[in-house]
Design goal:
The protein has one helix and four strands. Strands 1, 2, 3 and 4 form a four-stranded antiparallel β-sheet that branches. The longest helix is centred in the N-terminal third of the chain and has 20 residues.
Length: about 100
Amino acid sequence: MATQKPIENGGEQSASDCMHLLAELDRLRAFLHARCMHPDYEYETTDGPRKAFDERPPNGEGWERNTEEGRNGWERFDYHEEAYWRRRKANKNQGEDND
């Protein structure tokens, strides 16, 4: 069983502790998006001919470029290019934000 570090400053977190935690969360989100594993998102790949690729998002609304995957959201190969996309999954509980 792991021991917990006591909270200093009378139980209050310092601003630098909070900033460190937010930075860690951003790194975790980037890691999950780069591997298309974030549980709140769905992922798609579109492709087309090399240097003539029309970078349209997949069908449907809400798609954004998954800039964590590939080279800033796309990849060029010998004969084709791929663009990587993500969007939030449809939320069954529309009033909640699951970030």
